[in-house]
Hints:
single chain, binds 4'-deoxy-4'-aminopyridoxal-5'-phosphate
Amino acid sequence: MSVENSTQDLIARRNRLLGPAYRLFYEQPVQVVRGDGVWLYDQAGNRYLDAYNNVACVGHCHPRVVEAIARQAAIVNTHTRYLHETVLDYAERLLATFPPEIGNVMFTCTGSESNDLALRVARTCTGGTGVVVTKTAYHGVTGLLAELSPSLGLPEPTAPHVRLVPAPQPAGDATGDIFAGHIRAAFDDMKRSGIRPAALLVDTIFSSDGVFADPPGFLRPAVDAARAAGALFIADEVQPGFGRCGDGLWGFARHGLIPDVVTMGKPMGNGHPVAAMAARPELLKEFGARSRYFNTFGGNPVSAAAATAVLDVIEQEGLVENAKRTGAYLRERIVALRDRHDLIHDVRGAGLFIGVELRRGDAPAAKETAQLVNGLRARHVLISAAGPNANVLKVRPPLVFGREHADLLIETLDQALRDIPRG
Ligand code: PMP
């Protein structure tokens, strides 16, 4: 059977079995059969440069992580109702990466579960229900979080306890005062409807809103406004966390902030499903007095071993420094492409999280962005797009991405841009 036929068969089978709610990447979906470092391989043996994987942060199938998982799985896998040292050793390691105010960590399996738990803590501790999120936010799949994830396509009007604010526009609001004004107004409006604030929940690099990272500190006034309204600040670090921004491990720290609650997931186990919520102990004291928590799989010894290996590799291979260095190089080279390609309107981000906004004149170039993402895929380079107008290329490679990979990405992007018809 030809590769084309087998791909079509798989798509048909998938639709028949998994139903219509799933979406595939790319007009020509990729069947991935193997991964190694920054590379993915399809069933025909073609190699793809993976520039869109914040899960496999230390590289696909890193031997240290694979070995840690296999070793612990061969000894025992249980849960956190038994005593086991591995999860405590990991908790110590992880908590040491946070400011001392963040003193407890609870384990889950997904970013969604972490955000869901964070909201339960916020609601318990504030007595409120109201949450403010950005207009194109994504925070997860649970019922509670789907209501706080407008990028999924929310029903109109949104749930009564939810207020949406425009994403920050730091290019014209470097101090963040305009963004803070939106947050203040949203909480005021919520209170006027008799809803008590519980939380400001933001992804600290605003990934699905189109990637807004700089200048560091622009988020501070917004957090002050949320706290003045009686809400807690939940830093969603599922995307920026674990060193991606090239400046310490956490996106909130770049802004000089100390959150009330931090949520994390995706890269934490390099593909193994492990996630967590860390918080100020005084909040968990209150939460723990009123609820109990058990998660069958969250924090099991195999997950803790995987997560420990990931921290080891990040440290030993200097991946935060690499994210900073390679990220700066990549951004510089994309900026240089602007001379030849006037579609490129803005290049932004931090470390190895880069957003490239495309415009045709004044208009968001959504069609061209989709053409580019597919043009790159046809040339075996994988990225995607984000933002409310789907006109921001999202470049988010594994943290082991080197200069040679950045060069290949740039060459291929240059070629794919040349193929976009002039508007
Ligand atoms: N928060 C953010 C910012 C995310 O990007 C995601 C996943 N894309 C989640 C939460 C949810 O994580 P998960 O898919 O592991 O539930």
